[in-house]
């Protein structure tokens, strides 16, 4: 199994409009995707695109806002009212091979493989097994958001 590039850093936010304004007005981000709901995951998502070397896509910031009180992000926001870094997401070529490899390494996988915000399969690894960091593993997307 070979770990790919850091695709995005997930940042939980209490208010999507405020977070977009911050990245646009304070951080000078030029490309921010329109927010979209992912009811199956209980979140609203928008991506802040950062430039990479030689006009390639850089690492994205994934803004995630809870959709209702039962959202998995709602508990994070309750503990961190201003929001904050939620997870790191790395790409892999083959999601099932990665799942098998992490399982063989004794890493705990949180839930089933499912489709993420980029439209590709993802799964999460328990923070206690990943140096204290919630880690998302995603299959490399064919097209970037």
TrEMBL record:
Name of the molecule in the record: Methylmalonyl-CoA epimerase
Organism: Novosphingobium humi
EC number per UniProt: 5.1.99.1
SUPFAM superfamilies: Glyoxalase/Bleomycin resistance protein/Dihydroxybiphenyl dioxygenase
Gene responsible for this protein: mce
NCBIfam families: metmalonyl_epim
GO molecular function: methylmalonyl-CoA epimerase activity
Alphabetized InterPro entries for the sequence: Glyas_Bleomycin-R_OHBP_Dase (IPR029068), MeMalonyl-CoA_epimerase (IPR017515), MMCE/EMCE_epimerase (IPR051785), VOC_core (IPR037523)
Boundaries of every VOC domain copy: 5-140
Pfam families: Glyoxalase_4 (PF13669)
Keywords on record: Isomerase, Metal-binding
Primary enzyme class: isomerase
Nucleotide-binding recorded as keyword: no
Family: Belongs to the methylmalonyl-CoA epimerase family.
